[in-house]
Amino acid sequence: MSATMSSPVMSNPIFREPETLGGAVREIEFRDAIREAMSEEMRRDKRVFLLGEEVAQYDGAYKVSKGMLAEFGERRIIDTPISESGFAGMAIGAAMMGLRPICEFMSWSFSLVAADPILNNAPKMLYMSGGQWGCPIVFRGNDGAGGQLGSTHSWCVEGLFSNVPGVKIVIPSCPADAKGLMKTAIRDDDPVFFLESERMLGNKGHVPEGEYLIPFGHAAVRRKGTDCTLCSWGRPVNFCLEAAEILAKEGISCEVIDLRTIRPLDLPTVVASVRKTNCAVVVDQSWSFSSPGGELAALIHKHCFDDLDNFVHRVHSDDVPTPYSSKLEQEYLPNVRKICEAVRAATYRA
Amino acid sequence: MSISQTPTPVVNGQPRKLPSLPAPTLVKWLRDMHLIREFEVRCMQSYQEKKIGGFCHVYIGQEAVAVGCVAAMKHEDPIVTAYRDHGHALARGMTSRACMAEMYGKVGGCAKGKGGSMHMFDRPNNLYGGHGIVGAQTPLGAGLAFGTKYEDEVVNGGKNRRVTLAFLGDGAVNQGAFYEAMNLAGLFDLPVIFIVENNGYSMGTAIHRGTTMSHDLCIKGRAHGLKEATIDGMDVLAVYQDMHALAEWCRENSRPAIVDMKCYRYKGHSMSDPRKYRTREEEERHESNDPIGKYERALLDHGVVTDESIKEIMKACREEVRDAIQFSNESPEPPMSDLYTDVFVEPWGRFTGSSQPEFTGGASNVCTFRATDGKEGLV
Q1: ipTM
Q2: Does residue B322 sit in the same domain as residue B370?
């Protein structure tokens, strides 16, 4: 499915796309996929450990780490107090010492009180030390709107954090990717922000048996099409696929690209598609102003300037704090209707 | 263990008791203190000459703290500190050349000119950085201790054998991160010592104006169950002896501690500080309790040094720092290509680290370096 299977990175045998593994269909939840990845890596490497609020005795606030305390014990599955600035900083210190922490934020919204360690320490340590110390750490947790959580608990932090050099930002859209990307994140020597969605943790999908790691910076083409390229990452990829179904019935053929990581960003896959479709719509759950979606649109404009039949249209969350009301929240998010409207406008079918 | 509550004078005219260490070790402490002071004096000159840019915080007056603390530890014990970090770096063994060249922003610096005065990193000497954000290094210190303990106990299945020193200023005791770090250290039995270098001022704010219960900063650790020590930071012998006892207790028990290290910063907070918030009389009172002079007298009393050998030490320090300045002047500016290195360790994927999309011929969308018509520049 990936458009970039022949790249030098994919020739590294540790990297495989999940669909190349074959075997029987095995449907598991998104949360199970993340747990499998963490558990496999912890079995492989004693330096990997998990810390965060309620990850151990409670089995994880969202049951992502269910059963891990029983397998790995309290020295490696560590309940922290509600103290994000402290335990994020502590995890970074441990990473400098050569450990490989997985630091769970129950919600990325809570990472804002840990902004200093995760933005000032982790991504800059390698640079400021002139290459002496990196920071091999994974920060992970729920990102974006859950279900009526209100404004303070619904942050899409990629809108803020993707601005910072030195971090890798992974936003998977399906269980199989979540597993392969998490394994890569844990083995990566740089700080990785791994953004999950509470709304997707129960989503089921085929996750093959057997080991595979998905490289960063390699988009997946989820649906082939000829009229418009839909670019997205994380939960909205699923909305794009729904929209593409609807639009197909209207005679608009959409190619859906799942970027999977926004830092690094697989621009060639996007550019190749846009050069074919001559049309692009970017769907990004973060707010529009200074967003990764805005960045991608600018890159498409730069690299596909002569290929585009229309400017790049964008679908974001509305530029307001996240509302509580279910009706308002659904309207606020980049939903299927908004995506369909954007594609129709971009293809002059509105 | 005995903790010095007050400056330790010559008791009843008797010479100070020296620790039973080889004379060269005792002389090295004096040399290190002289080196730091000479280094900082020349830093101030270089700053005025605009050879050093940005912020620059000198350590003059507090030399006994870094030297005594480092002497009390093993080389494998990690150290992390704040932005007033030249003294810790030199005491830990960073060369004057690497330290000065870093401030000059030259490739010969400890971080190739990428860190600057506030960010001294020295991997061979287990110095995990000066850190510029007040208090931010304290959770890192807890993490270093977590890391050593985890490595010793979980990875290697043995007993904890290292203790981390996390230095902070008295201004940092009001940062939330510090309290979180102390709580985690207490909770997880982390072998870390938070050393509050209490020089009485957070920038220009006298400690009682910004800190409650400022007469005893150990109180700040009591709520978290930390071992406490108040130490005379103007006396290298007291610092060494008390810190050594404390560190060995932390090592043995794998528990954290807090130190109220009473000291005084002779100069301003940074180079731009006119020190209008305190009197010259106050400064003179502390300067008359100078840690270097006091230690020299103790060594002279025991015949460990002579007036002549002290002069030799000072001359050697002057020469070392002069050499460091010459080295820093001559060390090349970083090549423009260094701007783009050390962002990522692992360039997996085509877009991380130094690599760029193939089809753009090496240039990406923003601020990318490339060679055009033989010149280097930004496009």
Answers
A1: 0.93
A2: no
